[in-house]
Design brief:
By secondary structure, the chain is α+β, with helices and mostly antiparallel strands. The chain has one domain: Collagenase (Catalytic Domain). It has helices at residues 58-69, 94-104, and strands at residues 2-4, 8-10, 21-25, 37-39, 46-50. The strands form two sheets. The chain has a three-stranded mixed sheet, with helices on one face. A two-stranded antiparallel sheet has the order 1-2. The radius of gyration is 14 Å and the shape is globular.
Length: 116
C-alpha cells in the first residue's frame, strides 16, 4: 500500500482490509451499460470507474459515487443527480449531506456542505 495525504491509500492489488475500494474497470456496468462509474450499492464498499469514460471529471464523479457508498441516493438537481450533469453536480450539497447523515446516524449540524 502506498500512503497518500488526506487519508486515502493507493493499493496496487485488491485489499480486503480496505473500508472503501475505488477501482478502474474495462467493462460496462451490467445494469446500466452507459454508466461512467457506479457503486456496488447504497452503503456499499466498492466504487467502479469505467476506464476511458470517467476521466472527464474525476472529482465530481468520485464525489457522486462516494455519496452512494456513504448512503445517498439519486436526487435530481444535486450532487446525486441520476445522470452526469456539470451544472448541478459540483460539490456535496445540503440534500446529499442530509442523506449521508441520516443513513449513518450523524448529526447534520456536525457536517459541512457547499452552498449554491
Amino acid at each position: 500500500m502506498i500512503p497518500v495525504t488526506g487519508g486515502i491509500n493507493v493499493v496496487d492489488e485488491f485489499d480486503l482490509g480496505c473500508t472503501y475500494l475505488i477501482t478502474e474497470v474495462n467493462k460496462p456496468n451490467p445494469g446500466d451499460p452507459l454508466a461512467v462509474a457506479w457503486a456496488s450499492r447504497i452503503g456499499g464498499r466498492y466504487i467502479y470507474l469505467r476506464k476511458g469514460y470517467y476521466e472527464e471529471d474525476v472529482k465530481v464523479i468520485v464525489l457522486h459515487e462516494l455519496g452512494h457508498v456513504l448512503g445517498a441516493q439519486h436526487v435530481a438537481g444535486t450532487l446525486m443527480h441520476p445522470v452526469y450533469n456539470t451544472i448541478t453536480q459540483r460539490c456535496p450539497d445540503v440534500t446529499t449531506v442530509s442523506q449521508v447523515a441520516a443513513f449513518n446516524g450523524l448529526d447534520l449540524a456536525t457536517l459541512s456542505w457547499c452552498e449554491d
